[in-house]
Structure prediction request, 353 residues.
Amino acid sequence: MVSTILIAIGVLFNLIGCIGLIRLPDVYNRLQSATKCGTLGTCSILAGALFHFGFVDAGIKALIAIPLLFFGATAAAHALVRGAYHFGVKLGDKSVKDDYKDAVK
Amino acid sequence: MDILEILLYIQIVLSASCLFRIIRGPSIADRMVAIDIFGVLVVGICAILSITTQRSFILDIGIAWIILSFIGTLTLAKYLSGKKLNE
Amino acid sequence: MRYLALFILSFLFWLLLTLDVSVANLITGAVAAVITSLLFARYFFDRVYKFLQPVRYFWFVVYLVVLIWECIKANLDVAYRVLHPAMPIKPGIVKVKLELQSDFARTMLANSITMTPGTISVDIIDDYLYVHWIYVRSEDPAEYSRQITGRFEKFIKKTFE
Prediction:
């Protein structure tokens, strides 16, 4: 029962992340929504799998996957936002501030 | 078990909505963001599938998918910023 | 010393992943761990004796609790901004001064900032961290430094530095 609730919460977070991925205006905001919601949603699903299996081999595998996914997704998001800036993707129309422009020169 | 199957179908539809952004994305960077998140959602599909089918090797596929998607995204990001891979 | 620490860590990881203590499995894991530590130990931490200080593990648990709480708050914040019909966003990239010195502590701070509400770290140049913020709340550097890094800096300083 606990595992079903955790998985339902995870799918709900993933749903919000996908809505953000489709609705938000530029690359950086889409990356914000997608990284945060996708990572925590999938971590929640894996925690549900851990609760369902208990501490046998399958549960331990889900437990290992959580920190791997966490650090992998944050580092990949960091590399993507830096790569997109160097590629020349402009900040959106609503942006108010850009300190990074002077530092890259 | 019935609720879990409904959640599995919802998760599959969500990954399909990432494909929408991959096809429509105005620039290359949008497509790469969508590919990154597509990998994360597929790991969620693997976890739910391992519960509904009661087979633990699907979680192994999930772990391998996490590592491969991480390396792939790093490579694509390095390609975007126009640098060599060993920098 | 670094080779030994990385060997123990990767061997433990292998044992957790397979959960099997037959002789063949142990030999396979030991060979894989030796290869891993020979190849990658030069990128590992310099001062491995920090693994043996128990007070760091206590602060690590406190840091994990704070991080998970901030993650949940970040998700609710993103949900509010995405589902609101007018989409209240005001994005920008701001510059924050770093207090931490070691590389690993800076990496952990950048990772934590990526998971906190509305911020994602872009780059570190010299002593400054560049952060993309989805809703720039203030123009004053001291104020936004406190809002972005103040929650984590003291725990990370006690845990990893």
Summary: DSSP finds four helices and one strand in chain A. Chain A touches chain C at residues 13, 16-17, 19-20, 23-26, 28-29, 31-33, 35-37, 39-41, 56-57, 60-61, 64, 71, 74-75, 77-78, 81-82, 85, 91-92, 94-101, 103 (CB under 8 Å).
